[in-house]
Design brief:
The chain has 307 residues and is mainly α. The chain contains eleven helices and nine strands. It is 36% helix and 8% strand. The strands form four sheets. A three-stranded antiparallel sheet has the order 7-8-9, with no helix packed on it. The chain has a two-stranded antiparallel sheet with strand order 1-2. A two-stranded parallel ribbon has the order 3-6. The radius of gyration is 19 Å and the shape is globular.
């Protein structure tokens, strides 16, 4: 790892920034120009993270009001207002207490939600997945505010890991690392503004008030990870495996407008073939990068027609 002229800090804003730059845009440039929402935008990522922490929080906030709050958060600005960002444990309707309770008493269900989040936003792109894992592991190691004994990797089946234990980890479930980082940020009430210097170091600014161009040294220095990526089957530990999916990936705001809902059985219709999909460990993942993700279904039919 290179010597840095800044101290990397793991905060809500730096965490969201790394995830944002590890996703891909599902909508075409033409679709985005016509006003269609990008389901991989920072707005959607942050809303999913809020629901990961507390599944009772609203899933569709007013985008015009939520967007500036999201922009402030990702820039590591002060986010003291709880209206759309329920991250202050002292506020009445905060997501933090629920998150702590879920990790304590329903850890496996929370791990399932984290796995859904990771598969929806990140898992289809191998290089970006590697860069994200490397960046998170690096920032955890170099952030001196994180104690060596801090649990920063949460996995209900294979066990949690502390910062010290991550030093020698040989296999990793990315969803467990994402969940551990998010839990650390919220449960420890990490000040978002602590990451402002890190955000500025990750961008190149032409003028003082410019938005800045992504120029993250962590992404640049990445070459390879000597770590095997695994995907834990958290559903085998769940009493409600068939209904464990929480996030509604068929909602218009989160997915392609023309996607059709596919349910368990359909014996009346088969208009297409399975050539569009790969079947991996009982999971069906669309080849064309549209993000279709289904689990624990007996029969699924995919039309060959393109949108």
């Amino acid at each position: 790892m290179s010597l840095r002229n800044y101290l990397p800090r793991l905060t809500g804003g730096t965490f969201l920034t790394l995830i944002k730059h590890s996703t891909y845009t599902k909508q075409s440039a033409r679709a985005l120009k016509s006003g269609k929402s990008d389901p991989m935008s920072q707005i959607h990522i942050l809303q999913w993270l809020i629901n990961l922490a507390d599944k009772t929080q609203p899933k569709k906030p007013d985008e015009k009001s939520f967007s500036p709050k999201c922009s402030d958060y990702i820039r590591c600005e002060d986010i003291s207002s709880p209206t759309y960002l329920p991250f202050n444990i002292n506020d009445e309707k905060n997501a933090v207490e629920t998150f702590i309770n879920d990790i304590t008493y329903e850890k496996n269900k929370t791990c399932i939600r984290a796995n859904e989040f990771t598969n929806h936003f990140i898992a289809t792109n191998g290089l970006l997945k590697n860069k994200l894992a490397y960046s998170l592991l690096t920032i955890i190691k170099e952030d001196t505010a994180i104690n060596e004994s801090e649990i920063i990797y949460i996995n209900s089946i294979n066990g949690d890991r502390t910062k010290a234990q991550l030093e020698n980890i040989t296999e990793i479930d990315l969803s467990s690392l994402i969940l551990g980082c998010w839990y650390y940020i919220l449960s420890k009430q990490i000040k978002n503004t602590d990451g402002k210097e890190t955000i500025q170091a990750w961008h190149t600014y032409g003028t003082p008030n410019a938005r800045g161009t992504w120029n993250c040294d962590l992404f640049k220095e990445f070459t390879s990870l000597n770590i095997d990526f695994i995907e834990t089957d958290f559903n085998k530990n769940s009493e409600n495996a068939a209904t464990a999916i929480f996030f509604d990936t068929n909602e218009q705001d989160f997915n392609d407008n023309n996607e059709e809902e596919i349910k368990g059985k359909n014996t009346n219709k088969n208009n297409g073939s399975s050539k569009d999909a790969k079947i991996l460990n009982q999971r069906i993942i669309n080849n064309y990068g549209k993000g279709k993700y289904f689990e624990h279904i007996e029969n699924a039919y995919f039309n060959d027609d393109e949108d």
